[in-house]
């Protein structure tokens, strides 16, 4: 609805800018004049029938249900056909050009984005498609708008809920992306740059984002672990070191054969079981970790593996069995689909 309202405002502005509102006024006046004249010459027809005939004639539909029988009525028809089609053609061409221009600007990344609660991907590399696919595979984010800010020539993916802004991470572009209303920013590494320069640009982009929008949650892709501390000083919320992560997985593959298949499944939203972080239902508050784990597995076939303590902002993997779950804690679980724990579990 908002999209069509913006289109209507854009068309109205374009009509005023090109003085086409005068053309619209003349067209309406022509239809009314033809209606009056036609009803005058064709005395057996009422005003509404004459108005219907004027609309049908000026739009070149020509149903033929009403036609002039008098000489005066035919002259009115000729005048309306000759003049009306010209004015109507100018209007329809203008509206079509506005729609085409609007779509062109969106695909070329030149149009301001008006969405809220969206994800913003800054930069674009070969991992971008997989990131969007993973977001779309989770029911929590399958319909959430995504905004891509990158130095590309056009929109990178054919996704109706994906918006594109062409350019670098700078205040004007971030404002066009409505970053103040975004829920998360994903900062990707620029593969076009030299390996030693990529992280420097990434950290500079994070500094720009966090200085302007300190409350937005920023996830960062780094290439070298030596730059983690610099990235933390830039106020990044979560940091993923690509090279370090792949190295660790290779070592685990060598030590425990086949374990990486499970890890790959857990971090992918597109198949198998996944890792999820869920809010704690009130009826689980005060129970021990072991009790919560047993209840979730028995009643929901969900495996709880960690707890995030909101007071200390620490994620505790495999807590002690007698660890008491606090009201503000969140659970990290393994499940086939994103779980909803808003109902009370049975005690059976």
Task: Please provide a written account of the structure.
With 348 residues, the protein is α/β, with parallel strands linked by helices. The protein folds into 3 domains: 2-107, Helix Hairpins; 119-246, NAD(P)-binding Rossmann-like Domain (Rossmann fold), CATH 3.40.50; 273-335, Regulator of K+ conductance, C-terminal domain (Alpha-Beta Plaits, 2-Layer Sandwich), CATH 3.30.70.1450. It has helices spanning 2-17, 20-41, 47-58, 71-107, 128-137, 171-176, 195-212, 228-233, 242-255, 259-266, 289-300; strands at 119-122, 146-150, 162-166, 184-187, 217-222, 238-241, 274-279, 303-309, 314-317, 330-335. Strands 3-2-1-4-5-6 form a 6-stranded parallel beta sheet. A 4-stranded antiparallel beta sheet has the order 7-10-8-9, with helices on one face. Helix 1 packs across helix 4, helix 2 (20-41) crosses helix 3 (47-58) and helix 2 runs antiparallel to helix 4. The radius of gyration is 31 Å and the shape is elongated. Residues 344-348 have low confidence and may be disordered.
């Amino acid at each position: 609805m908002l999209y069509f309202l913006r289109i209507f405002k854009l068309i109205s502005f374009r009509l005023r800018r090109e003085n086409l509102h005068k053309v619209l006024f003349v067209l309406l006046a022509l239809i009314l004049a033809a209606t009056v004249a036609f009803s005058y010459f064709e005395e057996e027809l009422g005003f509404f029938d004459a108005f219907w005939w004027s609309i049908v004639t000026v739009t070149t539909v020509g149903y033929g249900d009403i036609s002039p029988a008098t000489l005066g009525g035919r002259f009115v028809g000729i005048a309306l056909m000759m003049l009306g089609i010209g004015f109507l053609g100018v209007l329809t061409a203008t509206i079509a050009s506005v729609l085409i221009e609007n779509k062109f600007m969106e695909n070329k990344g030149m149009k301001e984005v008006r969405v809220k609660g969206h994800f913003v991907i800054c930069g674009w590399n070969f991992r971008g498609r997989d990131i969007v696919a993973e977001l779309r595979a989770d029911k929590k984010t399958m319909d959430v708008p995504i905004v891509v800010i990158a130095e590309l020539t056009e929109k990178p993916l054919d996704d109706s809920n994906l918006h594109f802004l062409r350019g670098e991470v700078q205040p004007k572009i971030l404002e066009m992306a409505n970053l103040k209303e975004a829920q998360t920013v994903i900062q990707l590494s620029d593969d076009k740059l030299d390996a030693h320069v990529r992280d420097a640009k990434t950290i500079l982009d994070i500094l720009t984002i966090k200085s302007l929008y300190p409350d937005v949650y920023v996830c960062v892709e780094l290439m070298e672990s030596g730059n983690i501390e610099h990235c933390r000083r830039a106020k990044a919320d979560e940091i993923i070191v690509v090279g370090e992560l792949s190295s660790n997985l290779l070592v685990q593959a060598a030590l425990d054969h086949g374990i990486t298949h499970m890890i790959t499944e857990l971090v992918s939203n597109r198949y198998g079981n996944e890792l999820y972080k869920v809010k704690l239902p009130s009826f689980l508050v005060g129970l021990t970790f072991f009790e919560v784990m047993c209840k979730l597995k028995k009643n929901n076939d969900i495996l709880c593996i960690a707890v995030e303590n909101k007071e200390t902002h620490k994620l505790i993997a495999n807590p002690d069995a007698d660890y008491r779950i606090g009201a503000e804690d969140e659970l990290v679980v393994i499940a086939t689909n994103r779980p909803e724990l808003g109902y009370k579990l049975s005690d059976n």
